[in-house]
Specification:
Helix content is 29%, strand content 27%. By secondary structure, the protein is α+β, with helices and mostly antiparallel strands.
């Protein structure tokens, strides 16, 4: 299937299904912070968001998946990842 462009809203729902939440108390202005636990360590990842319908490019989605160990190499297929929202 490979990476896809998706809206911020859909990305947030997918990540939430993996236990990764948006920390609204972190980040400034249009920056949002995702927080999750990876290998027993709290991990954060900032991303820009100018609105819920903001489209995240493939490269950003790929980077977030790698950062939170949600890639095929980590056992999460593209179909499983994108099928959650």
């Amino acid at each position: 299937m490979a990476e896809q462009q998706i809206t911020y809203r859909r990305l947030r729902k997918i990540l939430k299904s993996f236990g990764i939440e948006e920390d609204k108390s972190r980040g400034k202005g249009s920056e949002r912070m995702f927080v999750g636990v990876v290998n027993g360590v709290i991990t954060r990842y900032p991303t820009k968001c100018h609105g819920e319908g903001d489209v995240k490019p493939k490269g950003v989605v790929r980077a977030i998946r790698r950062h939170f160990h949600l890639t095929e190499e980590d056992g999460i297929t593209d179909q499983d990842f994108y099928g959650r929202a």
